[in-house]
């Protein structure tokens, strides 16, 4: 097994409150923003810092994370924040970008306020969207498109409590 270690430097932080969501890019990384104008969505990689504990990093199995799912599921078959490396991925809709101040306003991101952002990439349908996909039967009733999420009762799908 490869035992390499990595150093990851956040490029910014999430700002989230009851009214708005944004990503504030750190000054040294603001020159990386030009060219994002025109992309309707971004892929944001972020560090789930609030569960970065040895116990969470050792977790490999989840007990019934989904209401309609099996009794146990391997951590790689979930979007659980508890994982060997607490890296999360979100596709977010872009509202506006201010390259001078380093702020990207987004419609929503499922990260907490002050969460470290590791990287940002443009969402590209040619590489991210897949026409023929399959999912387990227990999740086959979930929305097939991002735009269908607002009307779906996601809270009823998970067994965890907030």
Automatic annotation (TrEMBL):
Where does the chain cross the membrane? none
Q: Which UniProt keywords apply?
A: Methyltransferase, S-adenosyl-L-methionine, Transferase
- Gene3D superfamilies, alphabetized: YaeB-like
**Gene Ontology terms, MF aspect:** methyltransferase activity
Return one Gene Ontology term, BP aspect. Answer: methylation
Signal peptide range: none
Q: What is the protein name stated in its UniProt record?
A: SAM-dependent methyltransferase
The record lists the lineage as: Archaea, Methanobacteriati, Methanobacteriota, Stenosarchaea group, Methanomicrobia
């Amino acid at each position: 097994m490869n035992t390499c270690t990595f150093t990851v430097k956040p490029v910014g932080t999430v700002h989230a409150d009851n009214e708005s969501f944004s990503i504030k890019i750190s000054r040294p990384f603001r020159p990386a923003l030009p060219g994002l104008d025109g992309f309707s969505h971004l892929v944001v990689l972020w560090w789930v810092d609030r569960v970065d504990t040895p116990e969470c990093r050792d977790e490999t199995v989840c007990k019934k994370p989904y209401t309609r799912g099996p009794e146990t599921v391997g951590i790689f078959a979930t979007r659980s924040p508890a994982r060997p490396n607490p890296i999360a991925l979100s596709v977010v809709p872009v509202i506006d970008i201010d390259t001078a101040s380093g702020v990207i306003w987004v419609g929503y991101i499922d990260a907490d306020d002050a969460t470290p952002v590791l990287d940002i990439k443009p969402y590209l349908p040619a590489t991210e969207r897949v026409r023929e996909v399959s999912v387990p039967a227990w999740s086959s009733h979930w929305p097939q498109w991002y735009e269908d999420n607002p009307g779906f009762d996601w809270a009823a799908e998970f067994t965890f409590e907030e």
